[in-house]
Amino acid sequence: MNSFQKRTALRIAAASLFLACLASPIAWYVARESAEQAIVSLAIEESGRMLHRYDAFNLDGPEAVAHAQAAAQTISGGMFDIVEIYDSQGKKLAGATTTEGKSVESLLPHHGKPNYPEAFYRGTKLDKGVWALRVFVPLRATTTDLTLPITGYFEGVRVMPQWQQD
What's the pTM? Predict the structure, then answer.
């Protein structure tokens, strides 16, 4: 190989290494965000099914607290480790936690009275590398018609197991 070919090969190798170093963190970030979005979408869908099953979307009737508590108990331990259900004014009606949820509940940042028009989530890195995903969902009589009034709020926290963090 002559010097021109060596120089060209080195430049190609350097450019390839630079692009790989640049693309890897971006690909990791995109994959992580995509995984979070998938978990949140599944969580919203599953919690919605359970809330409908226990009629916990109607949070102003005489059975509202009982329905909310039954739904919270069912949802916790499955997709979520901490579940809280609020009425339309932001008053907490029900809550349930797993052992895992109790161990991290005091570490989570506190929030004010729920008053959000659309679902969102927050990923939070806690002590000892624990990653918690918080999902906030306004409740309506149907999940497809967003023009209907909000009847309550659902908040769930999932403590991500180590295998999902890797």
Answer: 0.76
Q: Give the pairing of strands 82-87 and 152-159.
A: antiparallel
Count the domains in the chain. Answer: 1
Domain membership of residue 34 as a residue range:
3-165
What are the tens digits of pLDDT across the range 120-129? 888 888 887 8
Adjacency order of strands within the sheet including 120-125? 92-97, 82-87, 152-159, 131-139, 120-125
CA atoms within 13 A on the CB side of 143: 13
Chain segment 56-75, per-residue pLDDT in tens: 777 777 888 888 898 889 88
Residue 114 has what DSSP assignment? -
> How far is Cα 139 from Cα 153, in angstroms, rounded to an integer?
5
CATH value at residue 154: 3.30.450
The CA–CA distances, whole Å, from 127 to 103, 122, 132 equal 11, 16, 10
Q: How far is 53 from 164, CA to CA, in rounded Å?
A: 28
Query: Residue 78 corresponds to which tokens in the numbers above?
Result: 């499955």
Ranges under pLDDT 70 in the chain: 143, 162-166
